[in-house]
Amino acid sequence: MNTPLILSLSLLLSFPLLFLCVPRILPPKEPLQISLPDELDDLSLFRRASTTTAAPATTTKKPKIAFLFLTDTNLHFLPLWDLFFRNTPSNLYNIYIHADPSSKITPPPPTSVFSNRFISSKKTQRANPTLISAARRLLAAALLDDPLNSYFALISQHCIPLHSFPFLYKSLFRKPAMQSFIEILSEEPQLWDRYVSRGENVMLPEVPFDRFRIGSQFFILTRQHALVVVRDRRLWRKFKLPCLNLDSCYPEEHYFPTLLSMEDPDGCTRYTLTRVNWTGSVGGHPHTYRPHEVSPRLIEELRESNSSSYSFMFARKFSPDSLPLLMGMAKKVIFRD
Ligand SMILES: *[C@@H]1O[C@H](CO)[C@@H](O)[C@H](O)[C@H]1NC(C)=O
Ligand SMILES: *[C@@H]1O[C@H](CO)[C@@H](O)[C@H](O)[C@H]1NC(C)=O
C-alpha cells in the first residue's frame, strides 16, 4: 500500500477513537464572564424584588409554592411534572422557568401547565457564578410575581418528584414556623480547595474560611430567605469572582449555604429535600439513574431519609430515557403516598 492510502486509512480508523476521547481531551470550556450590562440588569431586578412584601397575615388566601425550574438543556421530565400538577388547584402553586437561551427547549404544548412560564433568562455554565445568578433571577421573578408565594423550590431538568403535590404541600406547611430546606455542611474534606479556588485570601474579609459552607445546589427557601438572597450584595461581590481552579470551583454549591448560615442559621433545617446519589460520582456529576435501575423499589428507597421526621420530595439525576418507565409508574407508585 502506498503511504497516502495508509495515512488516510489510519485517519479513518482513528475517528471512532477520537470520538470516544473527545470529552476527555478537549480543553476546559472558556469560563463564562458576567458582563457589566447583565450585572446591572440583574441588579435592577433584584432591587425591585427586594422591596416586595408577603401577603398580609390576615389574608384568607392559601400560601403557594413557587416551583423554580432551572435548565440548560431541555426539561426532560416535563410530562411527569405535568401529571404532578394535574388536578392541583392553580391557587396553590406557581411555576417559573429559567432556560439558558442556548438550550434547545421543546416548547411545552399550550395545554401544559408549563406554557408561558418562562422568565427572562441569560446564559449559564456549570461550576460558574452564572448558575447563582440564574437561581437569584428565578427567586426575584417569583417574589415580584405573587405575594402569596411562600416557599421557593429550585428544581433541575434532571429532577423528578417522589411524592404527590398534596403530600408535598401538607409537609411543607405542616409547621407554622417556616424553615428553609437547604443543606449546610462544614466538615467536608474538599472545603479548603473550594475556598481557595478563586485565589488565596480573596474571600476575605466577607467570608472567612470558618464560615464557608457547602451544600447541594437544589433547595426550598422560605420567602424571608428568598429576600435575603436577592438583597445580598456583600457575598455576591466575592462569589462572582472568576474561578482560577476550575476543578474545585462550584460557586452554586457554596453561595446559598454560606449566605443563609451567616444570616439565619436557625431558620434552616440544614438538610435538603432533594435526594441525590453521590456514590460512584464521575467528574463532579452524581449517579444518573438509567432505565434498568428504575423500579417502584427505587422510588421507595429514594424517599427514605435517615430521619423519621421527613421524607425526600424530589430526586436527581435521571437519564431522559427513563421518562416512559416513570410515567408508567406515576399514578400507582410516585403519586401514591
Ligand atoms: C447509588 O449509586 C450506585 C452506583 O453509583 C448504586 O450502586 C446504588 O444502588 C445507588 N443507591 C441508591 C440508593 O439508589
Ligand atoms: C444515611 O446514613 C448513612 C450512614 O451515615 C449514609 O451512608 C447514607 O448515605 C445516609 N442516607 C441518606 C439518605 O442520607
From TrEMBL:
Signal peptide interval: 1-21
Record bears the keyword Cell membrane: no
Keywords tagged on the record: Glycoprotein, Glycosyltransferase, Membrane, Signal, Transferase
GO cellular component, one term: membrane
Cited Pfam families: Branch
Location within or outside the cell: Membrane
Any GO MF annotation of the entry: glycosyltransferase activity
Membrane topology type: Single-pass type II membrane protein
Name of the protein in question: Uncharacterized protein
Organism: Penstemon smallii
Lineage: Eukaryota, Viridiplantae, Streptophyta, Embryophyta, Tracheophyta
